[in-house]
Predict the 3D structure of the following.
Amino acid sequence: GAVVSQHPSRVICKSGTSVKIECRSLDFQATTMFWYRQFPKQSLMLMATSNEGSKATYEQGVEKDKFLINHASLTLSTLTVTSAHPEDSSFYICSARDAVQGSRYGYTFGSGTRLTVV
Amino acid sequence: KQEVTQIPAALSVPEGENLVLNCSFTDSAIYNLQWFRQDPGKGLTSLLLIQSSQREQTSGRLNASLDKSSGRSTLYIAASQPGDSATYLCAVPIREYGNKLVFGAGTILRVKS
């Protein structure tokens, strides 16, 4: 079945530094990937839609310059949290949909990244 | 605007019980609906994807039904086990918004041994 690999699973960084999270579709091509953020005991909040070869589409209230998204290939999207602050600490999850069979197989999610900014 | 609601918000049952989780959506013009489970601190695992043309899908002890006209889906779990304890989410994609998913708030299930 479709697999999405997300790395790292956990990261601790100092305030002011940047952190990059990778999301890879291992056995399918994804023209679109989605980045979510989840606070404890809350549902997923969509941050942005990552589009291969073009600019990402950000949800209202999400800072584009804060959360940089790059989708340079059909199997890789990255989310960079720039100048991280403690309030950016959260659980980040990506998902991807098969470019060809998307409506048939639905969405596959990564295992998530726990970011802690100290 | 599509809204997805899940009932109940939480459920605690003894091991072995059959149970039903409910999902409703306001806009019936969907092309599929997907059920996921999320374990604490983990990503989402896809359980079942049901197309709008289908009435149900089965995988092991799980059965999902879809009544598109009434805007409802149910996830039936047979002979529940402690390992089924997790948060269950249903979601529908919105085609006109780049197929992004709209999630329900989830049902937190606890199966007691």
User: Anything to note?
Assistant: The interface with chain A takes residues 31-32, 34, 36, 41-46, 49, 51, 89, 91, 93, 98-101, 103-106 of chain B (CB under 8 Å). Chain B has a mean pLDDT of 95. DSSP finds no helices and eleven strands in chain B.
